[in-house]
Structure formats: structure tokens, C-alpha cells
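::Amino acid chain::
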Amino acid sequence: MTWSPVHPPVSPLNRLAAELAAMAPVTAVTAVPLPEALTRELAALGLSELRLRATATWETQGGDGRIFGFGDAVRLCGQRDATVRDGRAEVAALREGATGSTGPGRPRIFAGFAFDPRNELRDESWGPFGGYQFLLPRLVLERADGGWSGSAVVVPGDPSDPQAFAEILAHAIGGAGNTGQPAPPAERGLDAESWERAVDRAVRDIRAGAYEKVVLARSADVPTSATKDVVLGALAERYPTTFVFSFETEGATWLGASPERLVALEGGVVRVASLAGSRPRGATPEEDDRLGRELFESAKERAEHAVVVEAVRDALEPACDSLEIPDGPELMRVANIQHLHTPVTGHVREGVDVLDLVERIHPTPAVGGWPRCESLAAIRELEGMDRGWYAAPIGWLDFAGDGEFAVALRSALLRGGRAVLFAGAGIVEGSNPAEELAETELKFRPLRGALECR
């Protein structure tokens, strides 16, 4: 796929290329706003084409917010055992001295992390993603407050020749898509029967006092001819209250529609969603209300949810001057499932950035278990697979250290005509293996449906 300006000598893209080339060489990342004419040309491509061409995308809960990143100006990739802390140290150098565009349309550094870098199981499907990645796109296009805006960056080492820069920009806008070859066969985790046995073992361990809760995940490997733009479009349309995301590397695409914000930081204000406990949506309003009341009144689900809220409190308090936490949860309803949800807000101390908060909070008991160390050890022993980036932080940050991350749930890895889907369930004392299996099947449903779209 290529991008060809209609009038190359005077096109908005070539004007931008000349401006950026004139700034080279630079010693730090420098951003400029996109020309209005180029912004209009890109927006006119339409959402489907933007999703297809973008290297990373972010479409936010219940609003008009959409961010598309095109091409790679800088991509930092950690080894498979690299942690969030390792990534923070590396991206700090990228942010150091970065200047330019602010406000809507400003540059974003898209980022994703592995759930558990210490897991010794290695699925080669996750090889291109590493323990973390930070992606600074060449261009960003953003829809916010009813309008479009964007930015482009010049980085150390960029050419000072306008034609060479025009080719870089055209290649970035041209896109690639999830066209990679299928990954080598790898261990995909437990079949349904074995997974139920693992749940039964976890319940026995919990009763014996080994830990209070563990979240066990499953995967499903399915063929698909759907392209990422079709899948993302279906998710955005069907699940408008979720975070719809995608991150592309080496022909593979990680995407999903997460109902759960991990953390957001803007202007010193932090927001976290504590999410745990679930029931399906009802076929009628009456059934929906009945299931919601059942969830809300369940002692088991309330106890599981309370553990998550307390863990978030413990993680945030050292980084915050103040926290606001409601006395009890509310119901969060998405298209096919409803959860117990407690929103947490606070004001961070000076010098705290969004990656500091990500490191403190991940993994929450909602996706790992509690206590943290014991539950992670149980996942490694019982789950039988490499989660990769499933249930891990996915999102973006800006040069100032503000940003937004979701938990990568309701998600799939697309590569070479196949998709690997992931879903998990929280196991506590009293969990029933068959019911937990049914919950994972319910959580597979959003991606299965989106992958069937044409």
C-alpha cells in the first residue's frame, strides 16, 4: 500500500517533509504540528483505512477520542525477561529533551509490556514483542473534541534531504498490516478439561492457605481471514465503552477491546478502574437486572472485588498526596458482560509519571491474584502457557509523562492468517471449575465475533 500526493512538488506531505528535513540534524526528538491540509487528507481516508495503515491505535471509552500512529520514528524493544522498570529506564532517554507539539494531536509513545517476564515458558508467537516495546510513530493523527489534529517528529539521525524525508513520511502513511508468516508451533496452554483440573487444584491450594486468589487464563487458536481494520471496527462499534487498541510489530498485531483502565494520568490527576467480579448480560431487561443484582449481592464476588480495591490503594498511596475511593462498587455493563467496578482517583506527588504508576499497579489482583508473588508462582505452575502481552499494560504516554494504559483483556494476537485469543477467570475459595470455564468462553465471545466479520 502506498501514499502518493496528488501534486508532489507542492503537496502538504512534501511541505512537511521540507520543514522536517530543514530541522535535521537534531540532538533530541522534536515535534511539529501537521499542516491543516495534510490533516484533512489523512482524516478523509476514513476510520477503516486509518486503522489498517496505522502501526498503533487507541480508541477510548465512550467518547470521540481516537489516536492513530503511523510508521516508526523510534522503536525500543526489551528482551523477553525485561520488566516495566527496565522499560522506564530506556524510554527516559527518548523523552529527555524532547520538544514540540502539545495539546491534542501531540506526539505519543505507544507502549506494551509482557504480563510476567519471569515466566520461563516461551511461545515464539510473542518473540517479536519482547518484554516491552515503546513506539514513537513518525506521525500521529488524533480525533478529539469533534476535530482532527496531528503532529510529526524528527529524530537524531534523520536525513536533511527533503525528498528522502518525503519518502519516509509516505512509507509511514502507507502502512503494512498483519501480513506476517504464521509463528512456529508452540505450547498454547491447557485444553478445557485440563484447565478445569487446574482450577480445581487452585481451589484446593486456596483452601490450604497457599494464596487467596489466582487468575488462570486460557487461549484459543483459530484461523481467520479478517484484517485488523475489520476487527478493530467491529470491536469499536459493538463495545463502545471499552478501550479498543492495536499494536503492530514484524507483521503481527496485538489488538483487543478492554473494559478496564489500568491507570490514566493527566495534569497530576490519576484515575484507576478497580474491576473484578462478573456476570453475563441478560437477554431481557428483567434478566439483566436479575443478573446484576446477583453479582452485586454475591459475597464471593464482593470479597474478590474488595481485594482488588485494597491492592490499588496500597499501590497508589506512596505516589499520591490524596486518594478518593468510593465506599462500595457500582455495576459496569458492556455489551456481553457486567462487572463490579470501583473508580479510584487521586493527586500524584511531584515527579511521578504514568510509567511509575504502571509499575506500581501491575499486575492487579484482577488479572494475577493475591498475594502477588504467590499467585504469580501459581500461574506459572498451573496455566501451562506464555501469556505474552495478555492481561498486561497497553497504552501510551506523552513527552511530559502523562498517559493512559488499559489492561490488555478481550484480546487476540493476529499473525499470518491465524488469531490466538486469550481469556481468564479469577479463582477463589468456592469457585466452580465448570462455571469458570463458561466465564472464559463468554470472554472469548467479543473477539470470536469480530474475527468472523468481513
Summary: The CA atoms of residues 287 and 392 lie 33 Å apart. Confidence is low (pLDDT under 50) at residues 5-9.
